[in-house]
Amino acid sequence: MMPYFEKLLFLLFCLILIGECRKHRTRRRRWTGAVEPHKHGFPLSKKTQDVTKTRKVKTDHLLRVDDHDFTMRPAFAGPAIPVGVDVQVESLDSISEVDMDFTMTLYLRHYWKDERLSFPSTTNKSMTFDGRLVKKIWVPDVFFVHSKRSFIHDTTTDNIMLRVFPDGHVLYSLRVTVTAACNMDFSRFPLDSQTCSLELESYAYTDEDLMLYWKNGDESLKTDEKISLSQFLIQKFHTTSRLAFYSSTGWYNRLYINFTLRRHIFFFLLQTYFPATLMVMLSWVSFWIDRRAVPARVSLGITTVLTMSTIITGVNASMPRVSYIKAVDIYLWVSFVFVFLSVLEYAAVNYLTTVQERKERKLREKVRQEESLPCTCGMSHTRTMMLDGTYSEADANSLAGYTRTAVAPEEPEKQERMVVHLSMSSESTAAKKKGIRGLRIMQNTHAIDKYSRMIFPGAYIFFNLIYWSVYC
């Protein structure tokens, strides 16, 4: 039994060794499978790799940055290097009338060729870098003329892109927000259109060293279709270019991004024109109020004048202090004049009413004095009229200016009667003619209000027709 048992253990041990050897061979084949075909006589085929994608080659070594002096422009001492420019406007952030400027965010791209940056490549693929390489090579020194503030966006990193092609062509792009001055003309405000320009120019290189140009003409300027402003309608974007001369340095190429804005009028109709028109119409209400209601008419006139002053002050507070007259100033000040004239109209009515009442008071006093006279001596154009003793007080008042005489004592049956001499002096007759004929309209205060109800609205409507036909 013992030899048989030993043989069984020996057989089991051999089987285990054979299994371990097979596992070891399988592992070697798995790790050396890429080399085995070459061992069996098959050629090793390697994929041709582009040097631009090789990790072992550093960018500085590939572009030979350290081998050249990039403080000088390409083709130094030769002809001017052409630099093409195109712009994509991302947004118009704001337009300020008070500061006379605008804020714009845009993508600014430059195109030029620098043979010092050429590199070998079998697939002719470009290499793209961020802003860290820009500090080591030459780039155009373009700046914004009449710029107040500008910056390159740096969230989350500097928004700068540099793309280099094997033949040395370079694309340099950056995202910029710039606030630039815009000379605005407010003579037709708020019915105006404004044209603003963003100007690009090289700071150091004249046209003999650097030639700026729009890469694709008018197609070089592109805008986002979603651009909109609260007060303006963007009518047109276009590009131009010209030479700028500085007496101390020379001629420079300058590129212009021009855009035309037309102001929305509806906001100013609601906030300025309608309130001013309503105040003028409200001032006309005083023409229908009784002239004896002094507090009502005075308070209405003062209220409309103060409201117009507030409207004028509010409009001027949001505008620059220009030395010329704006269209809105003409409308507001003419409206203010109409409101002020309505106050003066009531002042004239009140004054003429006082003068008329004073004359009537003097006339009544004179009549009382004439009634106290004992006879009618010296009266001209006298005739007598008999009235019963039962006459009314109104009848007696209607006979003001006439003298009375008693009935003769020899007629006792007529003691209840009175004799009225219907006579007027020459002085009273002249005063009455002057009051009725010479100053018929001026002394009739109701007539002044009546004519004002037609003249004021008619004149204001005529002014509006002329105003809107000129400025619209």
UniProtKB/TrEMBL annotation:
Catalyzed reaction equations: chloride(in) = chloride(out)
Every Neurotransmitter-gated ion-channel transmembrane domain range: 272-468
CDD domains: LGIC_ECD_GABAAR_rho, LGIC_TM_GABAAR_rho
Protein family per UniProt: Belongs to the ligand-gated ion channel (TC 1.A.9) family.
Entry keywords, A to Z: Cell membrane, Chloride, Chloride channel, Disulfide bond, Glycoprotein, Ion channel, Ion transport, Membrane, Postsynaptic cell membrane, Signal, Synapse, Transmembrane, Transmembrane helix, Transport
Primary location class: membrane
Keyword match rRNA-binding: no
GO molecular function, one term: chloride channel activity
A Gene Ontology biological process term: chloride transmembrane transport
Residue ranges occupied by any Neurotransmitter-gated ion-channel ligand-binding domain in the UniProt entry: 61-264
GO cellular component: chloride channel complex; GABA-A receptor complex; postsynaptic membrane
Residue ranges crossing the lipid bilayer per the database entry: 265-286, 298-318, 330-352, 451-470
Classification via SUPFAM superfamilies: Neurotransmitter-gated ion-channel transmembrane pore, Nicotinic receptor ligand binding domain-like
Protein name: GABA(C) receptor
Signal sequence annotation: 1-21
